[in-house]
Each structure stands twice: as structure tokens, then as C-alpha cells.
Amino acid sequence: MDIHSEILSLESRMCRSIIGQERVVRSIIICLLCDSNLLLEGMPGLAKTRAIRSLAANLDATFKRIQFTPDLLPADITGSEIYVPDSGSAQDAFQFRQGPVFGNLVLVDEINRAPAKVQSALLEAMEERQITVSGKTYALPRLFMALATQNPVEQEGTYNLPEAQLDRFLMKVLVDYPSAESEKGILDLVRREHRQKYADRKSAEKPAEEERVKLDKEAIYRAWEAIADIHVSEQIKDYIVAVVQASRYPGRHDAQLAEWLAAGGSPRATLGIERAGRAHAWLNGRDYVDASDVQAVAHDVLRHRLVLSFQAAASGVTVEKVIDRILSLVIAG
Which residue segments constitute the domains of the chain, with CATH numbers given? Predict the structure, then answer.
């Protein structure tokens, strides 16, 4: 099986355990292929954590979970130096103990429940793939992906994420309610899982052969190399830049758009659309990026990077509507 087929098989296995959230699964796969971080936002019970666990269950990689709470400390994430009285020398008296951030897939659950001091502990890890403790720098694994979740409705005991941290997520994906048909499928899936859980030991030790298949990290590295070679024409580069420029200087395109936007996307948004567009094209079996790839990933890449004006908020204008407006005004060359 070639690497492209292996990745599509991974996606298919995830979709079978996350019914009705195919779009969310595709976004998770794209972020994995882009060697980037992902933020999932949705109401409780919409399988945000389950989706991330499903990815971990199908990858031969180290999975770590951090439950963010108001009393969490930065050292609880990064690790810290501890005193070892029985060490052989004074130089080794303080030894570093790794925190949960030293994993391949790191689930940051309810990321907005910790104050900014704790959230900032992830900044260096997310961007530079390293952490610094007591003046010493420690590299994170080659495959490192922070997958964060947050609840959009609960405000008590939560803290807004700093813009600098939001910008380090390649995508912000909104998890919506499943359809009636999908929800019926969820009932059947969970019932089957409960039956297996409560079955006798013999049946519990006989998982399906396909469920035991785990994708090796080397396959992910090969996919990174293949996606790096995806062709992006000058016209598509111009289109990506024009989309992001329209978010910064909306008055050049539309007076109403200018009223809606207070701040646009940074160059990270441009890089993110191009990188996610290459991964999207590769997943669809093409060796080049076209305008449909840009449009497919634009919402997830721009959603958390645009700042709406007070007028937009007062008028009930959503960021989705703003991005739709930008894409309708900027035409691919």
C-alpha cells in the first residue's frame, strides 16, 4: 500500500469511530500532514476529545493528555527540575523530569480554562518544538502536534486565548451537531462498544484485525516529503496573498466588508492557507494546488485570525459570513 492509500485508510478508520464528523476528521488529517497544531471548538458531547483519541489509537505514536484547570502551573505542562539527593555529583543533583508536553500527540483539553500564564507555556512548544526550563532548552519529538479543545458557551472560569497563541494554531475547526441519521448511527456504535466492554474476556481480547493496524510515524514523515513537493503556481500564490490582503485592507474591495473587519490575517495566515492547500490537494490525489483547495481550507485557517469590529458584532455578523464575503470578492486568476 502506498503512502497516499495509507493516509486515506487512516482517515477512513477514524470516520468509522466518529460518525457524522467527516469534515472534522479531514481537518485533523490535514493538520497532521501539515505538521501543525489544531484547535477544536464545539458544545460538550460532540466527540472533540473522541476524535483526537481516535487519531492516537490509529497511530503508532505517544499520546499525552493535559486537562487544563484554573490552578494548573506551567511546570505541570513542561516538566521541571527536581532535587535528587542520591545523585553521584553536585552537577546532577537537579535532574529534569519531562512533563506531558513531551509526546507526539498532545491533547490539551478545555484549553481556555487555564490563565494566560499557563497557556503561554505552550507557545514555545507549538512554534519552535522545544521548551526552556531553568535556562536549558529541551527538544520535543520530531512528530509533535498539539490538539486543543474548548467550549464556546461556558464563560465562568474560562480565559480568552491570547492572540499570539491563537495564531499558532494552523486551523480552528467548529464541531457542529450531527445529522439525525448520523446520531442514530452513534447510538448503534456506542451500543456495540458497550457490548464489547461488558462481554467476556475471550471476546474482548479479539479486536478486529483492521482496528489493530497502526500507522507508523515514518509514514507520516514520507507524507510530509510528498506534500512539500506539491506544485503551487504563481497564479495560486497571488490568489492566496490576495485573500489575506483583502482581510487586512477590506476597504479596497467593499465598504461593507471594511465596516465588519477590525484586523486581518497575519503572514502566518498566508503560509497556513498555502500549506493546508497543498495537503488538501495531495489528499485528493493531485500534485498541484488549485483555487478549490484554497477555498476548502480558507475558513478553518482564517476563522481565528480575523478580528471583527463592534459594528459587525452588534449586527450579528459572524466570521463565517466575513470569510464568505472575502472569497466572493477575490477571484482566482
Answer: 3-193 (3.40.50.300), 230-329 (1.10.8.80)
